[in-house]
Design a protein that fits this description.
Aminopeptidase, single chain, 34% helix
């Protein structure tokens, strides 16, 4: 049995990804760039036993006013991935126990992990090491069905809006990266409108650097009215899974570029052999208007959880007393970690 925290350059990280089903969120180049946004250090927990492996991407952050650290997932759904069967309880229980011990020995007090709805590990085994909190469902599109079936699964208002956009002359182009700057302006306008935090104002430089790092596994779809950029989607393709990254359209009455983008992207991904397009869920996993909008494209649903792990209970309690004495350190379903 071997367990450790890996740096992005570690041979074991890339070797593990060659043996386990995974998504773009597990690739070291992605974790490195996201860690820069969070102001943390990119890492991954790695565990191996009897030829089976497990990997959990992490961003390790300093805790203000302390020499200790904590860990969070990169943006997206980078939960644990493994080539061990979900029913191999002994492997998963030992891996989770090693995760806690490795964090504690490295001065990492807690970890907040966003599980991957399509690649989730066994919840019962993971609950022995931390709280598994259910947030709601995410939506995916099954790209293995026919185009006719895909269209019939689409809610009638979405179908109507897609047809209106086509009649209005809206068109979608793929991978015209020269238009990235124009679309980022549209995206930032939308982020200001919804009052997003600074983290979500992804810059043109960040998105371009991510594209440079992962190459043709990242794509840009841009909606045009004439020569004006009115919307766009960035998304990844990895191991048959297409995953939305960030998207936005310019707001205007009776403009339906957003629905058209989703429709064109799924058709494009299907033509390239992808099997599923994961749209994600509502804000924070909630059953809100965003979830309802995404749910109008497909009946496929997946449970979304976060895994909250306390590696050093004594240090965790001391930090809560110091920074948020009104918080309950035993309540792992509320804001986590409670000291932030």
């Amino acid at each position: 049995m071997t367990a450790s925290l890996l740096e992005p350059s570690a041979r074991e990280w890339k070797e593990t990804l060659q043996h386990v089903g995974h998504d773009m969120y597990h690739v070291p180049e992605y974790v490195v760039l996201d860690a820069r946004l969070y102001g943390g250090t990119p890492a991954a927990f790695w565990f191996e036993r009897d030829g089976h492996r497990l990997l959990i991407p992490l961003i390790v952050r300093p805790i203000p006013g302390s020499e200790l650290r904590d860990a969070i997932s990169p943006y997206g759904y980078p939960g644990p991935v493994s080539d061990a069967a979900p029913g191999d309880a002994a492997f998963w229980e030992q891996a989770c126990s090693a995760f806690v011990e490795t964090l504690r020995s490295d001065g990492v007090v807690s970890a907040f992990i966003r599980m991957h709805p399509l690649l989730a590990g066994p919840v019962p085994a993971m609950r022995q090491a931390g709280a598994m909190v259910y947030h709601g469902e995410t939506v995916s599109m099954d790209l293995t069905v026919s185009l006719d079936e895909m269209w019939s699964q689409t809610r009638s208002d979405h179908r109507n809006h897609i047809n209106r956009a086509k009649r209005a002359g809206t068109r979608v182009v793929f991978d015209d990266w020269d238009r990235l700057g124009e679309w980022v302006e549209v995206y930032h306008d939308n982020m200001r409108r919804v009052g997003a935090t600074d983290y979500y104002f992804f810059t043109r430089e960040h998105i371009a650097a991510l594209h440079d790092a992962v190459g043709d596994r990242m794509h840009l779809a841009v909606a045009l009215e004439g020569d004006e950029v009115v919307g766009g989607n960035t998304f990844f393709e990895y191991d048959g899974i297409a995953t939305g990254y960030v998207s936005s359209t310019r707001r205007a009455p009776k403009r339906y570029a957003d629905e058209m983008l989703y429709d064109e992207v799924r058709r494009w991904c299907k033509s390239r052999g992808d099997e599923v397009f994961h749209l994600g869920g509502g804000k924070g996993g909630a059953n809100d208007s965003l979830f309802s909008y995404k749910a109008g494209f497909s009946p496929s649903r997946h449970p979304f959880h976060t895994w909250r792990v306390i590696a050093d209970p004594a240090a965790y309690r001391a930090l809560v007393r110091q920074h948020r004495p009104e918080a309950d350190p035993d309540d792992l379903t509320a804001t986590f970690p409670a000291y932030r």
